[in-house]
Amino acid sequence: MKLKRMPSMRDKKRYITFRLHSKNPILYSEMSGAAMKSMLNWMGEEGISSARVRFIRNLWNARSRTGWLTCLPAAVDDVKTALALVHQIGDDRVIFQVLRVSGTIKSGKGKLGL
Amino acid sequence: MKYYDYCILSDSDAAELSAMAAKLGWNGICILSRSGKTDNVKVGGLDVFGGLLIETDKAAEVRKEAMRQRKKFHVVAVSGSSEDVNRAAVETPEVDILLPQAHTKIDYVMAKLARENGVSIGFEFRLLLHSSGRERSRIFSAMTEHAKLVRKFRSPFVITSGALSEWDMRAPSEMQAFGRVLGLDPLRIIEGVSDRIILHNRKRLGGKYIAPGVEVE
């Protein structure tokens, strides 16, 4: 049986689209691991759980190095700051650049022209 | 709105820095150095200019150096290595930006003086980027204290990467998010990454400017 929430009790979400700048290709697992570690350091376990942070694996584009994650609207600034604090993955220097914050995946893709 | 990062402290090649800045969405960057480069170039639509960074332990030297070099540079910044240096910087209208270092503090008197003399208080993201654990929490705590004073006394401020290389640079939207996390006034955050300082200084160094409100036509 699938448990459901009343529609009026569902949390609002924000979709954050980001681009990873690096000299060498980066695997999805490395990218998400580094980002999660930074968020744990910055926001803490309680902060991450209350922000409902989740990476969307099937929207990761290894070629353009763009990806998506979701969080609650109140946590967007903390998540952006935590992503900005990632400066190295393995031996590679990296930069996470937030491209867009949107309410739905469709509107985010539309505005980015993806 | 044009976005400017005023405190790039890198000795790297200006071409690499400007390429990364353009990718991240900046419209202009200021490369600070002790000697100061005065060349004002446009690299692929990006406004790149040099600024002077005054690094000294003596408060008396801040005023002397700022007055001596003011007309040569578009941006004059002071690295606040002690409370005395911070105080001297905010008392000098020739200084554009005060960058308080991790171990120094500013108080409400300095915040008021900064507003009166138009000296922007700098918030460097690099200090957090290159620290971790207890040290990072201590630096962030000092920054939130500064942000509280800046907000209360409406002092001017800049949010900057303070990058030592092109990989330390961050996009304008991340800098604004960082400002909101610090507790700066959300309505004024955009001023912290805007072209306010460079527009004012270009006008001031243009030759027609005499004093605030007095210009030659």
What's this, in brief?
The complex is a heterodimer of chains A (114) and B (217). Chain A is α+β, with helices and mostly antiparallel strands.
Description:
The complex is a heterodimer of chains A (114) and B (217). Chain A has one domain: Ribonuclease P, Pop5 subunit (Alpha-Beta Plaits, 2-Layer Sandwich). In chain A, 36% of the residues lie in helices and 32% in strands. In chain A, helix 1 runs antiparallel to helix 2. The longest helix of chain A has 24 residues. The model of chain A has no long low-confidence stretch (mean pLDDT 93). Chain B is an alpha/beta fold and 217 residues long. In chain B, strands 1, 2, 3, 4, 5, 6, 7 and 8 form an 8-stranded mixed β-sheet that branches. In chain B, strands 9-10 form a two-stranded antiparallel ribbon. In chain B, a hairpin with a 2-residue loop joins strand 3 and strand 4. The model of chain B has no long low-confidence stretch (mean pLDDT 89).
Task: Give the ordered list of helices and strands of chain A.
Answer: EHEEHEEH
List unreliable stretches of 5+ residues of chain B. Answer: none
Assembly annotation? heterodimer
Give the proportion of residues in helices of chain A.
Answer: 25-40%
Q: How much helical structure, as a percent, in the residues of chain B?
A: 25-40%
The structure class of chain B reads alpha/beta
- The total strand number of chain A stands at 5
Largest sheet of chain B: 8 strands, mixed
Task: Give the low-confidence spans of chain A.
Answer: none
The CATH class of chain A, by name, is: Alpha Beta
Which CATH-level-2 architecture of chain A?
Answer: 2-Layer Sandwich
The rounded distance between the terminal residues' Cα atoms of chain A is 36 Å
Can you tell me the number of structural domains of chain A?
1
Binned strand content of chain A? 25-35%
Major sheet: arrangement of strands of chain A: 2-3-1-5-4
